[in-house]
Amino acid sequence: MGLIHAAPERQVMSTVEIEYCVPCGFLERAERIQHALLEQFGDRLDRVALVTGDRGVLTVAVDGDVVWDKADDEYDVDAITRRVRESV
User: Fold this and answer.
1) b/e string for 6-15 if b means 16 or more Cβ within 10 A?
2) Residue 37: which of 70, 11, 68 has the closest Cα?
3) CA-to-CA separations, 28 to 20, 31, 34, 71, in angstroms, rounded
4) Which of 1, 15, 22, 28 is the most exposed place for a label (fewest CB within 10 A)?
């Protein structure tokens, strides 16, 4: 009789989306956030996607839940990273 080997479990990875206002010129801010998140959590994230938007939007969502919004909070990459840490 042969041995049955179980497939290794795949760790559940989170998805982050950073939506940013193109006309506002928020691409550089979005890239800074993306870079910081990949440095901190790269092994726990499936992807960190940049999503184009307008009307002043700059948000960070983890698995579909907004964890940071420029409309409500100051732009601070360290604070955003802490918010994401709580969700991954």
Assistant:
1) eeeeeeeebe
2) 68
3) 9, 5, 10, 18
4) 1
Q: Do 87 and 14 touch, CB atoms closer than 8 A?
A: yes
> Which of 45, 35, 40, 49 lies closest to 14 in space, CA to CA?
45
Please provide residue 73's backbone torsions phi and psi, each rounded to the nearest 5 degrees: -135, 155
Q: Are 51 and 27 in contact (CB under 8 A)?
A: no
What confidence tier does 5 reach under pLDDT thresholds 50, 70, 90?
low
| Region for residue 49 given its phi and psi (left: phi exceeds 0; alpha: psi -120 to 50; beta: otherwise) | beta
Q: What is the CATH number of domain 14-85?
A: 3.40.30.10
List phi, psi (to 5°) of 60. -125, 125
Q: Is the dihedral of CA 27, 73, 35, 18 positive or negative?
A: negative
